[in-house]
Amino acid sequence: MSFISKLKTVVTGLVVLVAVVGCQHRMAPTSTYSGSYNASDNSTDYEVLPYGKVTMPGKWIAGMYNKTSRKQVFYRDDTTTLTVVIAPCASSPFSKDGMTGYEFVRNYYKVEAQYQTEFFEQTPKLLVEDKENRYMLWMVHSDGIDQYFLCGVKDCSCDECTYRSFNLKNRRLSEAQSKKLLQDIFLGEK
User: Fold this and answer.
1) Cβ proximity of 136 and 109 under 8 Å
2) Would residue 109 count as lying in a domain?
3) Whole-prediction pTM
4) Which DSSP state fits 171?
5) CA distance linking residue 169 with residue 74, whole number of Å
6) 100 CB contacts (<8 Å, ≥6 apart)?
């Protein structure tokens, strides 16, 4: 093999390597769940690489994962159900070109509220609008149970705006307890 052929091979390899590394954050997300319960801090982690991680207080069991909607369902022994989405804002149907982080949250709430009103005839009750921490939290009474929703944005190491969406269902938690649980999960992200 001549020097020129070797040089072409090395250059081609470098170009491919740079392309793969440069596009790495745009690759499809990988849903990973840490199934081990950490008794020392009484928590369960859920991470979607490279978009981020949430830590849920207590012991949670992973249930169904919907690849299309990116929804991961978790269950707790007390019949609490928590659905979690961690995804890039740009690939979400709630995103529009040029939309900033908090604008995404407001649009997410607007679309969800309209959907819940039109299709389920439920009127969402906005409980928290936190512009500084870039999230909104609301409640809907549906299927005989109060359901709590939180949507917020975070910056991630992948240099993209990412969002966290939560849907909490439990017949035993009060409104204050439900709000606190969702806020602790969103704001306490490691």
Assistant:
1) yes
2) yes
3) 0.79
4) S
5) 11
6) 161
Closest CA to 164 of 99, 74, 104: 104
- Total number of domains in the chain: 1
Structure token pair of residue 14: 């470098």
Contact 76, 59 (CB under 8 A): yes
Q: Please report the sign of the dihedral spanned by the C-alpha atoms of residue 170, residue 46, residue 187, residue 110.
A: negative
C-beta of residue 148 within 8 angstroms of C-beta of residue 139: yes
Domain of residue 171: give its range: 31-187
* Within-domain flag for 18: no
| Single-letter residue type at 177 | Q
The pLDDT tens digits for 108-144 are 999 999 998 998 888 899 999 999 999 999 999 877 8
DSSP 38: B
